[in-house]
Amino acid sequence: xxxxxxxxSHGKYMVxxxxxxxxxxxxxxxxxxxxxxxxxxxxxxxxxxxxxEDAFEIVSGLWKGITTGAPVTILIPNKAANxxxxxxxxxxxxxxxxxxxxxxxxxxxxxxxxxxSARWTxxxxxxxxxxxxxxxxFGVEVLGYVTKLGNVEARDIPDNFEELKKRRDESEVFxxxxxxxxxxxxxxxxxxxxxxxxxxxxxxxAKGVPAGLGSYSDLxxxxxxxxxxxxxxxxxxxxxxxxxxxxxxxxxxxxEFEIENGRIKRKTNNLGGIEGGxxxxxxxxxxxxxxxxPTTGKPLDSVDLRTMKPEKTPYVRSDVTAVPPAxxxxxxxxSVVVSAVLLDHLGEGNINxxxxxFENEDFPCWDDGFWKEYDR
Length: 376
Ligand code: EPS
Known about the structure:
The protein has 376 residues and is α+β, with helices and mostly antiparallel strands. The chain has helices spanning 29-40, 48-51, 97-104, 110-116, 121-135, 161-170, 178-194, 223-233, 250-253, 323-346, 351-359, 368-372, and strands at residues 2-6, 13-19, 57-60, 62-63, 66-67, 72-77, 141-149, 152-153, 200-207, 237-242, 257-260, 263-266, 274-275, 278-279, 284-290, 301-304, 309-312. Residues 9, 46, 48, 80, 95, 117-119, 121-122, 293-295, 317-319 line the site of ligand EPS.
């Protein structure tokens, strides 16, 4: 499966193209609508999100609402299709401005923002939400939530998945801890007043991922390599950590095996569901570190690249924090990676054939017959 994302932040459309999907997936457009709404509608967002409606359209690869196996194209119109007119020559620390100017050598920093603005994550969100219709055929569910915003850390995070989802959905900042939610909202209000911006952390869990996805052979096919590659492409992501953040002692960290009802299980899940680049059957846990948005209300020190004189950064329309929307975007990113490795494993064709392959897969069997195969 391959995902391509194109479109300029202030161009006519944002575009996601998904290639290599099986035929016969009934696409639930409500799932896409809901995730696009969540990405747009959270506390700490700025004026652009009040303009956009994200009224997406799927223009290829569907027949009567089911996938045909042809590339699926999702178009999301930009209502704010109005590129900035004034040439900008003062780079913001933390944005693409300076590094792209050095590489691409075009005379307006606004040009680079068209690709690197977080606007393109609307297309990633739509693609990931579409893939939820595939994942649920295999009993896989993905959930993202905020664990830290500015200085406030979530303390009360339920273990139960349904409760976690319910509480996450009740929070304006997508944090499952109601007390921490209030503090995070106050933190955003304070930052806005000061012209500051906030970083934080989000966690994404993929539940029900079968063991055996990924690879130990090709270094770039490892499941964790693929997670890192896509997550680090998301603007503002500075760190990706799989599993527990507490990894100082082997006795505390390593997930011991046990047998429950004749099946192999783990006593804990500190490794986050991946060992040696392959899923191990436990839930996949990804902790993502999000930096503060580069456009601050209070100017920062910079230089004017035209005059080579010190200058203060300009203020352009922006958000106070990208952390709550990042939890939606990261949820989509994990849906994309898990779908990709699942389809690598099950191959092409109709969804029902893939499901049969999935259900008929043998667990390795350590009996005499198994060994004789190799005894030649
Ligand atoms: C965003 C779209 C952008 C910004 C923001 C997120 O739109 P505009 O530049 O027209 O205001 O609101 O992007 C950034 C914070 C950034 O630094 O680029 C979006 O759709 O998520």
